[in-house]
Amino acid sequence: MTEQAMRRSPGTPCWVSLMVHGLTTTQEFYSSLFGWEYVPGPGQLGPYVRARLDGKEVAGIGQLPPDRHLPTAWTPYLATDDADTTAELIRSCGGTVAVGPLDADHAGRMAICSDPVGAVFGIWQASAHVGSRLTGVPGTPVWNELVTQETSTVAKFYQSVFGHELEALVSADFDYVTLHLEGRPVCAVHGVGRALPHDRGAHWMTYFEVTDPDEATRQVVDLGGHVIQPPREGASGRLATVADPEGAVFTIIRTER
Fold first, then answer.
1. Angle at 225 between CA 111 and CA 141, to 5 degrees
2. What is the DSSP string of 40-87?
3. Distance (Å, rounded) from C-alpha 85 to C-alpha 88?
4. CA separation, residue 72 to residues 9, 69, 75, 208, 245 (Å)
5. How many angstroms separate the CA atoms of 189 and 166, rounded?
């Protein structure tokens, strides 16, 4: 278990957030699955709560306005020292800034953006709220991965905006680029070609750590969610891809330590 109390280097995923139509029912789902408890968060974009484990914040859930019929999806936030400058750089590199930059009370300054292939992500300039404060225990985010058709163009976008170092693993049947900062991996881009879901397009995938992916998958179904890809062995551990009752897709994984 590691408590994260310091600001992250710019370009490091520091928070994940989910906007939904039914806040109460979504809280109940993730509370039952991960053991989360909740406290109120900044309310500029509507009702919002921060999920906690052992009293430490790990993720956020907000409620969409009733007239916003948008698909639900987990969104990673990448750290920045200056949200306004980063937003301008995102635009100049071919991305889009959809919301902000704006202040979230005294917590920090943020914007919601999309990259040139349309994958949505956030940027976060920390003030009182540095982001997720706990890693390495079940129920915490452990990895973020951009799923797209091919890696080369969009990986260079993140390199240009955030200074990521790129480590490519490209073969006849595998297109994967790990994004590094200060010599350590922080997230990745996975090119899946025609296997990219037509109904979702390019998107960021958040991985949450669990003790037993098989049992957690059964629990997802019991709680009203469904299975996208059943439990299987991966390079980093046993994992499954699932969706919550509103359709937000995420991956659960038992990491090999």
1. 45
2. E---TTSSEEEEEETTEEEEEEEE--TT------EEEEEE-S-HHHHH
3. 5
4. 28, 9, 9, 17, 10
5. 10
The residue ranges of the chain whose pLDDT is under 70 are 1-7, 45, 170, 172, 257
What is the spatial distance between Cα 91 and Cα 205, in angstroms, rounded to a whole number?
23
The angle formed by the CA atoms of residues 61, 51 and 108, to the nearest 5 degrees, is 70
The token pair that represents 145 in the structure block: 């991965």
68-79 pLDDT, tens digit per residue, is 777 799 999 999
Structure token digits, residue 211: 């003790």
Is-contact 200 216, C-beta < 8 A? no
What tokens does 18 get?
A: 């989910």
CA Rg value for the chain: 17
State the Cα–Cα distance between residues 66 and 9, nearest whole angstrom. 36
